[in-house]
Amino acid sequence: MLGKKLVTAQKRGETRALCLGLGMVTCSMMMYFFIGITIVPFYTKSVWTTETVCKVLKANIMDKVVCPNSEATEDEDIFPYPCLQVWVNLTASGQEVLLYQTEDTLERNPKCSYVPDKSENSKEVKARIETIASNFKKYQTFPCYYDPGGTQTSVILSRLYPPKGLLFAFLWPTLMFTGGCLIIVLVKISQYVSVLSAWQ
């Protein structure tokens, strides 16, 4: 009687462990799919792949401009802000080019180096842009990214999805997939050992 209870409990534990392993594998595959349709396209489309050194030539704050967001259809999505233009000397080619914060900044407004998030408090936005401009004037030299193919003459300060960030994004689903497969393998080994012991 006690042996039957132990066998039943063992089967229940194996079933739960097998469901856990299959669930982990399924979740990891869903995460792979999500990363593949969201992060990977942005990474592959980016042409600013080579790192170099940029030297600030001038950082000017122009009059307020309106964010020409092509995706914005409502008036509330369009907001004015001071336009910061940072011109740098590209060490790799010696050209004077306009610096952008990320790839997204160029798409949102090609006239400004920095596009703030939508904010109702215009004073905070102005203070933030002035701080950024003073930091550029203070730190004259810094690493930046440019397009080695020459399709884009501008440079960016940081990539939205650098190679390290892409590897980090794939790290967690890989660990989950490995753990799920390991649980399934251990359950199958346990079942095989149990059947072999019962047969002997």
UniProtKB/TrEMBL annotation:
**Regions that span the bilayer:** 20-43, 166-187
Q: Which family does it belong to?
A: Belongs to the KCNMB (TC 8.A.14.1) family. KCNMB1 subfamily.
Write out the annotated subcellular location: Membrane
What is the official name of this protein in its record? KCMB1 protein
Q: Which InterPro entries match?
A: K_chnl_Ca-activ_BK_bsu
Of the GO CC terms on this record, one is: voltage-gated potassium channel complex
Q: Which UniProt keywords apply?
A: Glycoprotein, Ion channel, Ion transport, Membrane, Transmembrane, Transmembrane helix, Transport
Q: Give membrane topology per the record.
A: Multi-pass membrane protein
Single GO MF annotation:
potassium channel regulator activity
Judging by the UniProt lineage, the source's domain of life is Eukaryota
One GO biological process this protein is involved in is: detection of calcium ion
Pfam (any one): CaKB
